[in-house]
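From the pipeline queue, job 12 of 40. The input is one protein chain; the requested action is below.

Action: predict structure.
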Amino acid sequence: MASFLDLRNQIASDLTRDDLSSQIASAVSDAIAHYETDRFYFNVTRSLTFPTVVGQSAYTGNDLAQIPNIIRIDHLFLRDTVSTYELDRYEPDEFEWLQGNNTGPGKPSCFTYVDGQILLWPVPITVYTMRPHMHYRLAPLVSDTDTNAWCNGIAGQLIRSHAKLLLYTNLIEDTDGMQRMQLQIPAFKAKLDYETSARTATGQIRGTDF
């Protein structure tokens, strides 16, 4: 599996430049930031859980590392000793009214997401297992050995091309190189979208959330 360093070295080799280490790292980060709010098969999950804490309403990265990086919670499920329940979503202002009319602790039935936290209501009266179905940002690439989906496969090719586009445009000022990347990027994005669709499609038409 390719690392952050491998990806940067590939870009440096493509550019035939060995003097742009910090600029390449910044371009990679900017390229990832450009695409991380798109939903792909590798940045959505239902596989992570966290336990509630008696008397605790707010849940942060201390409870589940990915919580501060959530882009969208599609569903939030609570598991007790018997059954699984889906919690109702409230907008933060609506949730404020719930908390202001506190009826005491109980089994959470509602949630909101604000300030990088999941807030539950009522406040848990015991320990439950929470399972979010969510779209989230992957952990940032910082160290040379760091790796994630953005370094590998079609996603890696997309980030590599977009980073080079930024460098050709803003630093190297190479119009031909910029135009080559402008042709490559849509093809890689289309392949990634197709792979995501193929992995996640159910074959059934479902209503949207708006």
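Job complete. The beta strands are 44-45, 50-51, 58-59, 70-79, 84-86, 88-89, 110-114, 117-121, 129-136.
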